[in-house]
């Protein structure tokens, strides 16, 4: 494949091959000398129309570890502010002959559209509420390193499913690898048709977390909600925030994940976020490895390779 636009379209062997490649990248990243030459002479542009800490910085580090020249395009100081469209911006960057474009955009489908307009490889770094494929891959890598075969796991994805591209990509990936997937949320934060995605739907944390191996919490995306539908933080935490009592319904060896950024005291109690069952910091480390793996996989399909 020339682009990575979503988990949709990747076969289970392709997902497993990316995870295996990322495992090697973890080892490289823990060495003193971290550089490889896979992307030497190549240009990678990170084009983020939405805020990011983890994804943008890890794509930059990953590209540099593979020897690429990486340019971070600052949208806030670009001509996008003067009304230039996504496609014109992409065509302008494309005229500078990059090899890889990493794109985050607030509109679902925007990255697919852009991929049709440029000559280089495109990686989706999150498009609206649609997909965030490298997040699902790094989550799977983190789970696999701790729990082994993903196909044997029960994973509870909890909270704001409605606005979450992370949930969507995780559901697609976990289903592809045979995991039992539950979504746990108030009915107002569940998308219509979610039960057709091959998940069990639960509207109480006690039921949804029962005997789960992995509890994945999601950020309450208040910026994507209309005024009157924004739940009160105190009430949300009481019913949906992961605290010690709610976590006690999961397996005793259950592990807790969160893609970040976290809202402490909203969807997760700081005691759990920083506690012994939390994998949240490790997810960040796996993020660099997975992005190295994806960049390497695409490098094999770049012209003159
Ligand atoms: N998980 C994630 O995508 O984080 P950022 O928004 O900080 O990139």
Automatic annotation (TrEMBL):
InterPro entries: Asp/Orn_carbamoyltranf_P-bd (IPR006132), Asp/Orn_carbamoylTrfase (IPR006130), Asp/Orn_carbamoylTrfase_sf (IPR036901), Asp_carbamoyltransf (IPR002082), Asp_carbamoyltransf_Asp/Orn-bd (IPR006131)
Function according to Swiss-Prot or TrEMBL: Catalyzes the condensation of carbamoyl phosphate and aspartate to form carbamoyl aspartate and inorganic phosphate, the committed step in the de novo pyrimidine nucleotide biosynthesis pathway. Reversibly catalyzes the transfer of the carbamoyl group from carbamoyl phosphate (CP) to the N(epsilon) atom of ornithine (ORN) to produce L-citrulline.
Cited HAMAP family: Asp_carb_tr (MF_00001)
Keyword Phosphoprotein: no
Catalytic activity: carbamoyl phosphate + L-aspartate = N-carbamoyl-L-aspartate + phosphate + H(+)
GO (cellular component) term, any one: cytosol
Name of the gene this protein is made from: pyrB
UniProt superkingdom: Bacteria
Protein name as catalogued: Aspartate carbamoyltransferase
PROSITE patterns: CARBAMOYLTRANSFERASE (PS00097)
Residues holding L-aspartate: 82, 165, 219
Sorted UniProt keywords: Pyrimidine biosynthesis, Transferase
Pfam families recorded: OTCace, OTCace_N
Binding residues annotated for carbamoyl phosphate, in chain numbering: 54-55, 104, 132, 135, 260-261
Residue ranges of domain Aspartate/ornithine carbamoyltransferase carbamoyl-P binding in the record: 2-144
Subunit structure: Heterododecamer (2C3:3R2) of six catalytic PyrB chains organized as two trimers (C3), and six regulatory PyrI chains organized as three dimers (R2).
Record domain Aspartate/ornithine carbamoyltransferase Asp/Orn-binding: where: 153-297
Molecular-function GO terms, alphabetical: amino acid binding; aspartate carbamoyltransferase activity
Signal peptide: none
EC nos: 2.1.3.2
Keyword set includes Mitochondrion: no
Metabolic or biological pathway: Pyrimidine metabolism; UMP biosynthesis via de novo pathway; (S)-dihydroorotate from bicarbonate: step 2/3
BP-aspect Gene Ontology terms: 'de novo' pyrimidine nucleobase biosynthetic process; 'de novo' UMP biosynthetic process; amino acid metabolic process
